[in-house]
Each structure stands twice: as structure tokens, then as C-alpha cells.
Amino acid sequence: MLTLTDSAQKAVDRFIAGNETPVSGLRISVTGGGCSGLQYSMALEEAAKEEDVVLECGIVRIFVDPLSAPYLNGVTVDFLDSMEGSGFKFENPNAQNSCGCGSSFSA
Description:
The structure is a single chain. This protein is mainly beta. It is 15% helix and 46% strand. A 6-stranded mixed β-sheet has the order 4-5-2-3-9-8. The longest helix has 12 residues, at 6-17. The protein starts with a strand and ends with a strand.
């Protein structure tokens, strides 16, 4: 369904280790907004919700709500660290259009 590259797994693991409260995993969701209509959201979570799809991506547990799941099918999440900046990059084969910044898309 969803893939995190090794670089993304290591980055998430660092964020989890540095968090002050206990973290069980990473929530990835799709919400309305952004310049293309839909945008990705990521947040550290203490626990999965009952209705979540729970994925094991190497060393990271991912929580996906049922409404976001179809939009995230086949998505690869990478973490880039360069002189221009660092951040997560989503590669979505289902996106029909995406904005220049890469943080929103349309399906």
C-alpha cells in the first residue's frame, strides 16, 4: 500500500526518538487543501485508532485512516536532505496533477 524509503524510515525514527511523549507510530493522511485540492499530512501518534490501517514499514509503524487509504495506495515517501533544504517527498502514481512544491495533488 505505502512505502517508506530507508532515508524516510531513519528520519521518522529520529523524530520519534527525540519526541518528549511516547510515540507508537506515524500517521500519514490526505486532507482537503493545498493548491491542487488535496494535501499530505504527517503526525507522530501515541496509538493507532480502531479504524486505522496499520502498516509496518521497516522500523516504523504507519497509521492510515480509511478515507486516506485509497489516495495513499502505491505511494512512496522519501526524505531528502540537501543544501536547498530537507523534508519528506511523496511520489504518488495515482496523482493526476501536483503542485510545484510537491505537497499537494489532485486525484
